[in-house]
Structures are given as structure tokens and as C-alpha cells.
């Protein structure tokens, strides 16, 4: 296309019109455009056939890859422990039938699903040893399985006591009196003997408690052979060295005499148990030195009062368990921390839910040699005299002999010897040391007066027929309020009714009344149903004497009554001895004929 | 594996597997004599399945780990095969094809109360066919027991061997001991 030329393009700038110039002239311009066809040759190309070419393209690619997940067998590492197969709880080869009449287990006071297991103490380090204890069956299962006979099912806290003692080589069982330390120790010794962990056991106790220990062994472990170390020197030597017996019982006094035999390294003991271990609190005493010298593997101490006067008392006991572990003057807090794992102490308040409100202990004692000689003469002569009376015999005659014999059972009239007093003193030591109070009942003022002289150190008060009525109230008041007065001596008659002494936790029946109902009234001075706190009643009884025979009759009557009236819960009526029963005590014929039920 | 010819003894095995919070598994095998006294105890170090095993084994993971791996490893350490091996964990029954001794599941009262009819909530996790073994259930004394149906003959073996003792022996209590022992072993390893 040609560019159109405009006329004004030829005008000089000076001639360009201005706004002030003359009016605009209009000139017409022809705008027509001429068009002609340009030959491109495309039409020819469109009619031409296309040319087809082939190119090769590779379609190969990398093969798909797979990810493998290795399912390796998990590595299982196993630790193994084997334990020796001991004789276990199966009967001992020479097990003898129980000499005591077994009573059926009372209904359990414990929950059936309770399982008390032996926990390894902190000083057992090796895992194998710890697992040995952890894997033992529960103590309850032993009782329920009947593989070991128990006359009564232990209370839950007693199971815990056994579980505490069993694994310990050094231990103090410091339960309050009346909670059954003896039973817990015996049952644990029994388990250790069956498990083969101990074979030779020595138990040391105060002399008045020896017969009690023997009786308790008979009750709780009748199949375990027990020997009391006694008799002349030759016999004792044989008992110490040659006698094949699992458990030996010796008293502290005898230990002093047999010192050379006891500390002989050949006579190694697997376990030595000290009862009333506060006796060795004085570390420099001969007793302490001898017991520390006994060759032994395990040692337990039993005491209701591990600390009587100062914390150094505990140092003395620990010198027996592990000499040097505690030192005199140690701060109480440090001492408490150091001994925590070695001492088990429960009070009645702590285990109250486990306990009945009244707990009876039968202190069955053997007469001292002096008492026994006097007693035998009195009974033999007395019976002969009664038999000589023939038809003239009356109940009064028999009654007089019974009273005479019972008095000898309390005290030997010639020497004043008394096995009951020895036992009572041992128990009252603990009562007083723990700040508790006790009532001692006797049917004779004469016996109470003898007791007063011997028990003076416990702060003794009296309440009986010889105490004027006007003074009695002040005696009771003093007993309540004076912390130094730990014992009140009462006669059954004066102290059985109208008194409330519920702050007393201990009652001792120094001799037994004819009728259990009277005893119950006496006991109830200290015990009231519904009142918090339980009462421990210790019934003293001399074995092989008239006391035992009377007790047996009364016990049978009580059991009969309980069997008949257990639903009503009422108290027995006249449960005392009948005319025929009193004659029967000496196998005598009454004027009416022989006594069938004579003992 | 131990000498299986010695399994004529009357000892009892108790095998359980405990699962910890971190999902690690501890196996324990306790052998008791007829008085309930321990003779042997074997326990495993922690076993923890990895994620791949969890996914790929699916519902068969527990029988695989509990029975075939942990159970087997424990049994291999025994000095003699016990008369019966009791377990309180059902997947341990997967051990049965690997041992001569009957493996018996001791059901707990809670389980039977929780599922008295064998029914299950449809919105709750429930076993798939591959994860749960078919069981033959039976009573022995006061105990509700079960054996794998594939080994149904174990029932008569267990009954004839153990019938006179069943009521005297607490078949659940030993598992508590094993758990305590495993815990004790764990504490000592820390």
C-alpha cells in the first residue's frame, strides 16, 4: 500500500494556521483504495498428498523395585532361677500324731482373698534369693490347704508377723503383750524347719516362761520335737551336745551355768531366739555376753518393750542381732531409720480391727520343786484321810482339801516359792514398761498380801475385804490418776461388781474362781462391750494339780453351754461345780456311791 | 526343648505374659510342686513387637508372641516338662503345638461374667477368626478351664491327673506370684 500524502505536510512551519488566522478552508480528498490479488501458490500446495515419515521411540524403562520388610523372630532372652526342693510342707518322716485335742478352725476373721506373702528384706541383695521369698505361697494358703495343721486360724497381723520373721536373719518382734509373739515365732520356726532352712534352734526365755513355751509348741507345732534343757550337769551336757532334737528351750539362768557348752563352736545353731530380750539391754551384763557368744546363723529377739528407759536399750538388743550396728548415743531419728527394716512393732490399737475385744491367754505353769513336794504330800495325805472317813465324809471335808491344795498352787507355805508369781512378775515388767495398768485377781486376801510385797516395784495398790470401804474409792481414784501405779490387787468378792476400770488393758487371774460367771464379772471390770480397746486376760493354772482338774470340768461345762446357747448369747447360769463333781476331783466315792464322771 | 520323657512328674507349670504400659511384654513361667512350693522360675527380658509385626501379624500377633515366641523360649529352659502348664492369658495356648504338656487356660470369674453368652458389642474391638483359637471348655473342681480344640484329648489328661487336687489348689494365685517376681526382677535390673 502507498502512503497517502497530506497537503499540509508540504507547508512550512511558519505558514501553519494559527488560531488567530483566517477561517478554516475545507478541501475534499479521495480516500478510495485500489486492491489486486497476489499469487501465493498455496492453493497448489493444499492439493498436494502429504508425506508420512516414521520415527522409532524406545519404550524401555527401569523394572519396578520391591521393598522387603524383614520379619525377624523377636529375640527372647530368658533368665532362669531354680530353687532347692526341700522337704516342703509334707509331713516329717517321724511326725507323730498331735498329742492335743484339735479344735475345728473357727470361722475366719480374715478375708478369704487375703494373701500374706513373704517379702524379702532390704538386706537380701541377690535376685535369686529375693525371688525365692517372693515366689513362696501365701501363708493363708498353707492354713487353708491343711498341709500344716493349725489349731486356730491366725489373725491377719499374725500372718504378717510370720512373713516378717521368716526371711530375716536378724529381727526384733516387738508386739505389745497379748498379740501372740510366741505363736508367731513358733509358726515361723515350724515353717523354716519344714523348708529345711533351719535344723537346730535354740530358744532362750525367762525360767517362768519355759513351760509356757513348751505348751505353745505343743499347741502350734505338735510334731516338732522340743527339749527343755534341765536336770543335772551330765543330763544337760547330753541335751546340749548329743540330743537329736529340732528345738531346745533354755532359760537365761541356766545359760549362765552352761556357758562353756552353749558357746562351743561345735554346737552351732541355725537360729537363736531370745524371749523377753530386754534382759540383754545392758551390754556389759554376763547374760548379754553369753548370748552374743553363742555360735549362730540367725537371731531373733522378742520383746514387748524394746526401749524401756532409753534408746540405748535398743543398742543392747542389737548387739545380739548385729554387733556394732547401732552405737550408744545415736540420735533417735537415725536409729529409727537404721532399724526400720529389722523391727516389727504392733500395738492392740493398731490391729484392733483384727482382734476380739477380749483375748484370753492360759498361763499353764509347772509347780516349782518346793511347791511340788509340798503339794504331793498334801494331796496324798489328804486323800488318804478322806478315804479313811468312809461314810462320814462330807462335801465340806473335800472342799477343805481343795482349798488347801489351791493355796499351795499359789505359794509354797514353807518357802514362799511360787511359779505363778515368777510368771506374773515377768509379765508385769512388760505392762509397767509400756505404761499400762493391770488388775490381778485372787480369791484369797492372803495371796494378795504376799503379792503386794513381791510386786511393790510396780506401784501396787490393794482393793479387797481388808481395805476399809471408806478408803476404797480413793484407791480406785489413785489407780486411775497416778501413772506410777501399774497394778491393783483385787479379790473376786470385792472387785467383781460395781467397778469400772476400763483403762486397764490387762487382767491376771492368779487363781481361778469356782464359777466362770464370777470370773466373767471380774474381767468385765476392765472390759465393756462397745468400749474401744481390747483386754488381755491371763488365766494362771498349775499343771497336774487340782487347778487343772477343776478347770477341765468347768471348761467342759462352758463348752456345753456355748454349744446349746450360742444363738441366744446369754451368760451361763450356775456353771460352778456340783456336789458330785467336787467328790469326783479326787476319784472319791460319795456316800451315795461312786462318781461316774470323776476325772 | 527339655527332655520330654521326664514329664511324668506331678509338678505344675504356670505361664503368664504381662504387658507393660510401654507395650513391652514380660513372660514368666513358674514351676511348683504339689505343695505349691517353687522349684523353677524363668522370666524373659522385655519383648517389644515392631510396627511391621504389628501390621502384618494383625490379630495373630498375640498368639505368635505370647505362645510361639515367649512361651516356647520359657519352656525351652525347663529342666523337666511339668504335668500341666496353666495360663491365665488365652493367646499362650498357641504354645500347645510346640510342647508335649497340655496347656490349659484358667478362665477368671470376671471374664465369664463379662461375656456370659459369648456375645460381643458390635462397636467394640472383637477377635477376628485368625486371632482367637477355638477352645474346648470344661470344669475341674470349681475351676473353669479350656484347652485348644485341636488338642481336645488334653481335657481327659488334665482331669485324670489333677482331679483329686483341683479343689485344694488355687490355680489363679500362682500368677500373682509370677507378676510380683517379674516386678522384682525389673526393679533389680534398673
Q: Mean of residue pLDDT of chain B?
A: 83
How large is the count of helical segments of chain A?
21
Low-confidence stretches of chain A: 88-111, 568-572, 594-599
> What is the number of domains of chain B?
1
Structural class estimated from helices and strands of chain A: alpha/beta
State the distance separating the first and last CA atoms of chain B: 30 Å
Strand order of the largest sheet of chain A: 4-5-3-6-7-2-8
CA radius of gyration of chain B is: 16 Å
Classified by CATH, the class of the largest domain in chain A is Alpha Beta
Could you characterize what this model shows?
The complex is a heterodimer of chains A (599) and B (190). With 599 residues, chain A is α/β, with parallel strands linked by helices. Chain A folds into 2 domains: 224 residues, Tandem AAA-ATPase domain (Rossmann fold); 227 residues, P-loop containing nucleotide triphosphate hydrolases (Rossmann fold), CATH 3.40.50. Chain A contains 21 helices and 14 strands. In chain A, helix 10 links the parallel strand 6 and strand 7. The N and C termini of chain A lie far apart (162 Å). Chain B is of the alpha/beta class and 190 residues long. Chain B has one domain. Chain B has 5 helices and 7 strands; from the N terminus they run E-E-E-H-H-E-E-H-E-E-H-H. A 7-stranded mixed β-sheet of chain B has the order 3-2-1-4-5-7-6, with helices on both faces. In chain B, strand 6 and strand 7 form a beta hairpin. The N terminus of chain B is likely disordered. The chains are: A alpha/beta (599), B alpha/beta (190). Chains A and B meet through strand 1 and helix 2 of A and strand 3, helix 1, helix 2 and helix 5 of B. Strand 1 of chain A pairs antiparallel with strand 3 of chain B.
Amino acid at each position: 500500500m502507498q502512503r497517502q500524502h497530506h497537503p499540509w505536510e508540504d507547508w512550512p512551519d511558519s505558514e501553519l494556521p494559527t488560531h488567530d488566522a483566517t477561517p478554516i478552508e475545507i478541501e475534499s480528498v479521495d480516500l478510495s483504495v485500489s486492491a489486486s490479488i497476489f499469487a501465493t501458490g498455496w492453493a497448489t500446495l493444499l492439493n498436494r498428498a502429504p508425506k508420512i515419515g516414521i520415527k522409532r521411540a524406545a519404550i524401555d524403562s527401569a523394572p519396578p523395585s520391591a521393598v522387603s520388610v524383614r520379619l525377624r523372630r523377636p529375640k527372647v532372652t530368658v533368665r532362669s532361677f531354680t530353687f532347692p526342693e526341700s522337704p516342703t510342707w509334707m509331713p516329717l518322716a517321724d511326725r507323730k500324731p498331735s498329742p492335743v485335742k484339735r479344735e475345728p478352725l473357727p470361722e475366719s476373721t480374715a478375708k478369704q482373698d487375703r494373701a500374706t506373702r513373704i517379702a524379702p528384706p532390704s538386706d537380701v541383695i541377690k535376685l535369686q534369693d529375693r525371688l525365692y521369698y517372693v515366689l513362696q505361697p501365701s501363708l493363708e494358703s498353707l492354713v487353708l490347704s491343711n498341709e500344716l495343721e493349725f489349731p486356730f486360724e491366725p489373725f491377719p497381723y499374725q500372718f504378717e508377723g510370720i512373713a516378717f520373721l521368716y526371711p530375716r536373719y536378724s529381727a526384733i518382734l516387738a508386739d505389745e503383750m497379748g498379740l501372740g509373739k510366741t505363736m508367731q515365732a513358733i509358726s515361723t520356726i515350724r515353717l523354716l524347719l519344714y523348708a529345711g532352712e533351719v535344723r537346730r534352734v535354740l530358744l532362750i526365755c525367762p525360767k517362768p516362761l519355759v513351760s509356757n513355751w513348751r505348751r505353745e509348741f505343743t499347741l502350734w507345732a505338735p510334731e516338732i520335737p522340743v527339749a527343755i534343757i534341765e536336770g543335772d550337769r551330765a543330763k544337760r551336757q547330753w541335751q546340749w551336745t548329743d540330743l537329736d532334737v529340732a528345738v531346745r528351750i533354755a532359760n537365761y539362768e541356766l545359760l549362765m551355768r552352761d556357758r562353756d557348752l552353749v558357746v562351743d563352736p561345735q554346737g552351732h545353731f541355725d537360729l537363736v531366739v531370745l524371749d523377753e530380750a530386754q534382759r540383754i539391754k545392758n551390754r556389759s551384763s554376763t547374760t548379754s555376753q553369753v548370748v552374743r557368744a553363742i555360735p549362730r546363723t540367725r537371731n531373733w529377739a522378742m520383746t514387748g518393750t524394746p526401749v524401756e528407759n532409753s534408746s540405748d536399750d535398743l543398742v543392747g538388743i542389737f548387739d545380739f542381732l548385729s554387733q556394732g550396728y547401732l552405737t550408744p548415743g545415736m540420735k533417735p531419728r537415725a536409729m529409727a531409720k537404721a532399724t526400720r527394716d529389722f523391727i516389727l512393732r504392733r500395738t492392740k490399737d493398731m490391729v484392733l480391727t483384727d482382734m476380739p475385744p477380749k483375748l484370753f491367754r492360759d498361763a499353764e505353769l509347772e509347780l516349782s520343786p518346793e511347791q511340788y513336794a509340798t503339794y504331793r504330800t498334801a494331796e496324798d495325805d489328804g486323800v488318804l484321810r478322806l478315804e479313811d472317813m468312809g461314810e462320814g465324809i462330807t462335801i465340806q471335808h473335800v472342799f477343805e482339801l481343795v482349798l488347801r491344795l489351791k493355796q499351795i498352787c499359789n505359794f509354797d507355805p514353807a518357802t514362799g516359792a511360787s511359779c505363778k508369781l515368777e510368771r506374773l512378775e515377768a509379765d508385769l515388767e512388760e505392762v509397767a514398761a509400756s505404761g499400762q495398768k493391770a488388775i490381778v485377781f485372787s480369791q484369797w486376801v492372803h495371796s494378795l498380801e504376799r503379792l503386794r510385797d513381791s510386786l511393790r516395784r510396780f506401784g501396787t495398790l490393794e482393793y479387797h475385804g481388808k481395805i476399809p470401804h471408806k478408803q476404797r474409792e480413793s484407791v480406785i481414784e489413785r489407780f486411775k490418776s497416778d501413772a506410777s501405779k501399774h497394778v491393783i490387787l483385787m479379790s473376786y468378792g470385792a472387785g467383781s461388781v460395781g467397778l469400772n476400770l476400763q483403762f486397764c488393758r490387762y487382767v491376771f487371774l492368779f487363781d481361778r474362781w469356782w464359777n466362770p460367771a464370777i470370773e466373767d464379772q471380774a474381767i468385765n471390770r476392765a472390759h465393756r462391750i462397745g468400749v474401744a480397746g481390747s483386754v488381755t486376760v491371763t488365766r494362771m493354772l498349775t499343771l497336774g494339780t487340782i487347778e487343772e482338774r477343776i478347770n477341765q470340768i468347768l471348761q467342759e461345762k462352758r463348752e456345753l453351754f456355748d454349744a446349746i446357747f450360742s444363738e441366744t448369747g446369754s451368760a451361763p447360769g450356775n456353771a460352778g461345780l456340783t456336789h458330785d463333781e467336787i467328790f469326783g476331783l479326787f476319784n472319791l466315792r460319795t456316800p451315795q456311791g461312786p462318781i461316774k464322771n470323776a476325772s | 526343648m527339655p527332655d520330654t520323657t521326664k514329664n511324668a512328674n506331678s509338678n505344675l507349670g504356670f505361664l503368664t505374659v504381662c504387658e507393660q504400659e510401654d507395650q513391652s511384654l514380660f513372660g514368666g513361667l513358674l514351676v511348683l510342686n504339689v505343695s505349691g512350693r517353687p522349684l523353677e522360675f524363668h522370666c524373659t527380658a522385655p519383648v517389644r513387637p515392631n510396627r511391621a509385626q504389628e501390621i502384618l501379624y494383625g490379630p495373630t500377633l498375640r498368639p505368635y508372641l505370647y505362645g510361639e515366641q515367649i512361651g516356647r523360649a520359657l519352656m525351652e529352659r525347663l529342666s523337666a516338662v511339668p504335668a500341666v502348664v496353666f495360663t491365665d492369658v488365652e493367646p499362650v495356648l498357641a504354645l500347645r503345638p510346640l510342647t508335649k504338656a497340655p496347656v490349659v487356660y484358667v478362665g477368671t470369674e470376671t471374664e465369664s461374667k463379662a461375656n456370659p453368652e459369648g456375645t460381643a458389642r458390635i462397636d467394640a474391638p472383637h477377635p477376628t477368626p485368625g486371632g482367637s483359637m477355638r477352645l474346648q471348655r470344661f470344669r475341674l473342681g470349681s475351676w473353669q478351664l479350656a484347652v485348644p480344640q485341636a488338642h481336645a484329648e488334653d481335657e481327659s489328661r488334665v482331669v485324670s491327673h489333677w482331679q483329686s487336687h483341683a479343689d485344694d489348689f488355687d490355680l489363679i494365685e500362682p500368677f500373682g506370684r509370677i507378676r510380683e517376681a517379674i516386678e522384682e526382677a525389673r526393679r533389680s535390673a534398673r
